């Protein structure tokens, strides 16, 4: 075992982590610190197929990283193999078009981008600063969700608003899930030779959801915008709506614009429509039991995803592949079928038997024999991309 990378994904109230070895192929340990900042905060370690959860008396991000450090100290063979730390960073703005070794200048750049990701970037900065403190001497790398989309052309990323907003404030579409899309593009090339020279649509569907058009290996359009609120209907986010709704909600409820925005981010989407849950599995169970609100929420999610995939296709010369990934994309046969049913005009159809029986965790082609497009389920692996980028940058 050599050249292990500690991958850290620090959120506002959670911290996911993993140690990957052998060029990112082997996961030695993984886990998550949950409910940080509350009295119920805990950290779970998954090691050698066993899970162990520890309650955190001090539910801070620093204590979570300290627990990881303590665990590593008790497994010196793994601790001694660490050569670097890779951090997922949501927003790199226009400053970062690729992964970078972290120094003070990079940290300042991540802080500047925090205005566009106020929930995420400050948490990433906290995670990075704590990691430098607790793992002195280990090089650290930032891998940006937005970087993959920096190849999108101005006519796609600019908003049709007065140009001084872009010139002075960098208000534009940035897109997210880029590390996932980059992985999918590379993995697809392994199973479908030549796909790096073709047109690919990807639906990354989870609690956060987006679509991306990839032409010859490069992102040419994506559904999320300056923040992750634009685009698809999601678990708790509304996705794209008439902007005037913000004002209407604000006036109707007698609340501020920020409070109205909070409703669109945290109380809308599958949760808002179903009034049951933001979790697709819960809604599918409810739908099977005859709950019409659950069915409505899922069907709205499907039709909006299909619309965004269709709109993405306008940037491609041909739709050679459609890939489903993310927790919902990989596991919900109902939504894959419903989405593809709305794409028949594009000659995209799937084999319902292959769709229903697709093995979990496998890369599977579920196209029907008559489909003009290959339709795939490909599990994403953002941690692997972060580990590979970290190895690449620290070995130069």
TrEMBL record:
Its cofactor is Mg(2+); Mn(2+). CDD domains: ASKHA_NBD_AcK_PK. Mg(2+) binds at residues 9, 382. The active site is at residue 145. The record marks 177, 237 as: Transition state stabilizer. ATP binds at residues 16, 204-208, 279-281, 327-331. Mg(2+). Can also accept Mn(2+). It is found in: Cytoplasm. Pathway: Metabolic intermediate biosynthesis; acetyl-CoA biosynthesis; acetyl-CoA from acetate: step 1/2. It catalyses: acetate + ATP = acetyl phosphate + ADP. It comes from the Bacteria. PROSITE patterns: ACETATE_KINASE_1. InterPro entries: Ac/propionate_kinase, Aliphatic_acid_kin_short-chain, Aliphatic_acid_kinase_CS, ATPase_NBD. Substrate binds at residue 88. PANTHER family: ACETATE KINASE. This is Acetate kinase. It comes from Marinomonas rhodophyticola. The lineage of its organism: Bacteria, Pseudomonadati, Pseudomonadota, Gammaproteobacteria, Oceanospirillales. The gene is ackA.
């Amino acid at each position: 075992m050599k050249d292990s990378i500690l991958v850290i994904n620090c959120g506002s109230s959670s911290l996911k982590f993993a140690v990957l070895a052998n060029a990112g192929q082997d996961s030695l340990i993984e886990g998550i610190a949950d409910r940080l900042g509350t009295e119920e905060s805990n950290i779970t370690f998954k090691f050698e197929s066993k899970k162990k959860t520890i309650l955190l008396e001090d539910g801070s991000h620093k204590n979570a990283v300290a627990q990881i450090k303590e665990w590593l100290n008790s497994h010196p063979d793994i601790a001694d193999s660490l050569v670097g730390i890779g951090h997922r960073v949501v927003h790199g703005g226009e400053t970062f078009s690729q992964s970078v070794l972290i120094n003070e200048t990079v940290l300042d750049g991540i802080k500047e981008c925090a205005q566009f990701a106020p929930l995420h970037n400050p948490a990433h900065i906290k995670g990075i600063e704590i990691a430098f403190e607790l793992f002195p001497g280990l090089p650290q790398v930032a891998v940006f969700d937005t970087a993959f989309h920096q190849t999108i052309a101005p006519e796609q990323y600019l908003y049709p608003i007065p140009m001084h907003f872009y010139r002075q404030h960098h208000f534009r579409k940035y897109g997210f899930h880029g590390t996932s899309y980059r992985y999918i593009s590379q993995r697809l090339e392994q199973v479908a030779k030549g796909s790096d020279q073709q047109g690919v649509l990807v639906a990354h569907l989870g609690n956060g959801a987006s679509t991306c058009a990839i032409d010859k290996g490069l992102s040419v359009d994506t559904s999320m915008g300056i923040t992750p609120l634009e685009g698809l209907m999601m678990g708790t986010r509304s996705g794209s709506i008439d902007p005037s709704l913000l004002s209407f909600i604000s006036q109707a409820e007698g609340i501020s614009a920020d409070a109205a925005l909070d409703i669109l981010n945290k109380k809308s989407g599958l949760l808002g429509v179903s009034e049951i849950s933001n979790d697709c599995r819960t809604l599918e169970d409810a739908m099977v039991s005859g709950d019409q609100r659950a069915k409505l929420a899922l069907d709205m999610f499907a039709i909006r995803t299909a619309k965004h995939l269709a709109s993405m296709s306008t940037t491609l010369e041909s739709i050679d592949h459609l890939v489903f990934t993310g927790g919902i994309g990989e596991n919900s046969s109902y939504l894959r079928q419903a989405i593809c049913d709305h794409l028949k005009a594009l000659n995209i159809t799937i084999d319902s038997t292959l769709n229903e029986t697709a093995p979990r965790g496998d890369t599977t082609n579920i196209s029907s024999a008559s489909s003009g497009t290959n339709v795939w389920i490909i599990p994403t692996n953002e941690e692997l991309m972060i580990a590979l980028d970290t190895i690449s940058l620290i070995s130069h």
